[in-house]
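Tokens in:
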């Protein structure tokens, strides 16, 4: 288990606007009455309230996701889990659906520094609109969202929304109706994801595992079991591609805990018994005190004909993608963290490596500036010896004493890298066009 470095404002403005992040940094419950205009402008109200520690909250979950991407980039892990991440609704200059900073977009931008193509999969019951919108015009990122559609928040994710310009066919939306069960979900999921992996051949996968698609969720209307939900994640591990696993929605809290505990066990190849051991929180899991839940008898409105029609339409779109996209050679930008005045203790890191890190480490590797940020995170992380797998990392978002990040803030908030002017053209070939489709925000 690892403790990531909290993200700082200049990390967040790799996607979000400077004004929006500065507002999140300054606003508090006590002074929000002084910022009424900005509250409305940035949609920080109602389902995105101001609360004590708001910016710190954003720093912690975003740092976990970006830090996980850094570990994948440097080959320190094959799979990284950050259950506190996955806030997929946030826009460039707007909060939405209790999502303030879009850690997913920022993590994907980090992955794009080392990977040509990144696949994003979203099984939250709500459409992953913020992530799709960010990458709607690029082929560097493919987004696939399975969600409830029709008079349901956020109201986006139509079957015909397929991307634009260079990103045409690289946005895949799977609109579903109430009551979908494990069998119906699998009828769509596995054939579609098999085809996506065959055609797109991503170098890394980001998986948003929102648990509000489970049966019995307070805000959801699907009927998935925990095993059915986890099967989607387990299926993606069979492709042996670097995997960043994030949390997301979920409003029956005891079932969220059940789901993510079971999925952590799946990723660690640990079989968890159904009977839950006694602990301080046992009262929350009564009266059954079991890991798994029983789906309800609600009606499945997704008929066989409807599902087969959706599947056929999406497979036809995927067949129009004739070859996997590629990018030209470029200079790799540095990691999203300050790398100045960082001393690397090679012996200290090598000692940790013997405890389970998968990378082969020697002093010459650390002399390369691109590795310094990953090593810095590694030095501040806590290793749990009781986890046997050396290739799965779990991010633990507790406060850290790390304070750095003094890189200049991008003037536009777009995914630009701080590089010398002579390197700007090279760096800009690295990133897709990431912007909010809504004009004037």
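Residues out:
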């Amino acid at each position: 288990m690892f403790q990531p470095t909290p993200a700082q404002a200049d990390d967040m403005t790799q996607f979000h606007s400077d004004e929006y992040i500065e507002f999140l940094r300054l606003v508090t419950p006590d002074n929000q009455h002084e910022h009424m205009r900005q509250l409305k402008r940035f949609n920080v109200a109602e389902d995105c309230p101001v609360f004590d520690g708001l910016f710190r909250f954003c720093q912690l979950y975003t740092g976990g996701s970006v830090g996980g991407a850094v570990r994948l980039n440097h080959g320190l892990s094959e799979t990284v889990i950050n259950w506190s991440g996955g806030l997929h609704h946030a826009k460039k200059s707007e909060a939405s659906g209790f999502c303030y900073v879009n850690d997913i977009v920022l993590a994907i931008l980090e992955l794009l520094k080392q990977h040509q193509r990144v696949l994003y999969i979203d099984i939250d019951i709500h459409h992953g609109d913020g992530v799709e919108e960010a990458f709607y015009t690029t082929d560097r990122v493919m987004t696939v969202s399975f969600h409830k559609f029709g008079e349901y928040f956020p109201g986006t994710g139509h079957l015909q929304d397929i991307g634009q310009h260079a990103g045409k066919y690289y946005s895949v939306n799977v609109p579903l109706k109430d009551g979908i069960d494990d069998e119906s979900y699998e009828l769509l999921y596995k054939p579609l994801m098999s085809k996506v992996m065959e055609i797109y051949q991503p170098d890394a996968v980001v998986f948003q595992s929102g648990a509000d698609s489970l049966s019995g969720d307070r805000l959801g209307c699907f009927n998935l079991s925990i095993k059915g939900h986890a099967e989607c994640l387990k299926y993606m591990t069979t492709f042996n591609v670097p995997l960043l696993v994030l949390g997301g929605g979920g409003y029956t809290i005891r079932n969220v805990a059940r789901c993510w505990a079971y999925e952590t066990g799946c990723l660690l190849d640990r079989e968890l018994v159904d009977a839950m051991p006694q602990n301080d929180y046992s009262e929350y899991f009564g009266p059954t005190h079991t890991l798994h839940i029983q789906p309800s008898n609600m009606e499945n409105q997704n008929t066989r004909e409807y599902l087969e029609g959706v599947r056929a339409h999406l497979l036809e779109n995927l067949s129009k993608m004739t070859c996997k996209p590629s990018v030209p050679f470029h200079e790799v930008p540095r990691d999203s963290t300050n790398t100045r005045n960082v001393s690397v203790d090679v012996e200290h890191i090598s000692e940790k490596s013997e405890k389970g890190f998968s990378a082969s480490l020697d002093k010459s590797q650390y002399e390369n500036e691109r590795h310094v940020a990953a090593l810095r995170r590694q030095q501040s992380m806590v290793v749990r010896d009781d986890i046997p797998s050396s290739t799965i990392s779990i991010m633990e978002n507790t406060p850290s004493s790390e304070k750095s990040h003094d890189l200049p803030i991008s003037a536009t908030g777009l995914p630009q890298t701080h590089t010398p002017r002579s390197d700007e053209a090279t760096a800009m070939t690295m990133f897709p066009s990431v912007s909010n489709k809504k004009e004037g925000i």
